[in-house]
Amino acid sequence: MSSSTPQVITCKAAVAWRAGEPLVMEEVQVSPPQPLEIRIKVVCTSLCRSDLSAWETQNIFPRIFGHEASGIVESVGQGVTEFKQGDHVLTVFIGECTTCRQCKSGKSNTCQVLGLERKGLMHSDQRTRFFVNGKPVYHYCAVSSFSEYTVVHSGCAVKVSPNVPLEKICLLSCGVAAGLGAAWNVAAVSKGSTVVIFGLGTVGLSVAQGAKLRGASRIIGVDNNPEKCEKAKAFGIAEVINPNSCKEPVVQVIKRITDGGADFSFECIGDTDMITTALQSCCDGWGLTVTLGVPKVKPEMSAHYGLLLMGRTLKGSLFGGWKPKSDLPSLVEKYVNKEIQIDDYITHDLPFEDINRAFSLMKEGKCLRCVIHMPR
Question: Residue 190 belongs to what domain range?
Fold first, then answer.
């Protein structure tokens, strides 16, 4: 840790001033880290669909989006003992305090202290650390990585080896980890099972990777984007259904080809109507549906009670059930040992100044993950 007291840093950040409008590269002032916080020089950040959804629909502005990121600790606040200047870290959008009821339960990763941040302010004092010409700029998902520097609570960062490529593992901050965990932790996909995945973006394809590694014998993908259907085959999904090309409802197709329904189904789109479809696509008796997507509209869902009465189960999955500080280091190790794949999800590498292009590519369905590289 530097002996000098951290000062305000002026740097570049991509600021969203209004919903759906292009991000504007601004000079922002980033406050020093407060007690139990760290300030990070962002090295790489990737665009997640939840960033896109929030940019299109939420009403907290001006704001700095971004939450899948890797970087290097620039300074630490009072009371921080876990990190020091120069440490390499992953950011996480949910933290782990290790002491609350949820953290100690062993049953959950929804920390009561550092859970989902919804107001655009820091957990510790409900204030922002970003300013443009004295005007406060709000945070996103406790990270705000579309900035050359950001401040996060020390519970929302995970230390990693300096030998691990930051431009790859930033995907473990959300998408890839969320998909793997949904298959492993939440669903506990069993050997020889049949799996159907709705939505073949990064999360859906990570579910496929997780299911395959757990021995699923049949993985079926569902998506109405022909480009994604084609890419899915490279991730081991041999059967892909495009609902737009079907002559019958997709549920009927799945039931017919699986002899009554899949053992497991995963909703990775963020469409509450699709949750019902996924639930209907499971078999009676033991079919399990896991929903991972974040809906842009219509957060309420409905389903006929008979689907549950016949033995189906519906579960939600936040970050794949991983406790970030406890579990992410083992995922990083699996990547280093080539037990899991990350690189193939990266379809574009872009400089920071091209961040709006990343939004366009994702909106048009032409990418999986765009990794955005910050100036060195």
Answer: 179-318
Q: Which domain CATH number covers 245? A: 3.40.50.720
Could you tell me if 160 and 244 lie in one domain?
no
Give the residue, 3 or 8, on which the prediction is more confident: 8
Residue 342 to residues 36, 47, 51, 167, Cα–Cα distance (Å): 31, 15, 20, 10
pLDDT tens, position by position, 87-118 = 999 999 999 998 999 999 989 999 999 998 88
What pLDDT digit, counting tens, does each position of 276-328 carry? 999 999 999 999 999 998 887 888 888 899 999 999 999 999 999 999 999 99
pLDDT at 1 over 50: no
Among candidate residues 54, 91, 275, 294, the one with its CA nearest the CA of residue 174? 91
Both 82 and 129 in a single domain?
A: yes
The Cα diameter of the chain in Å comes to 69
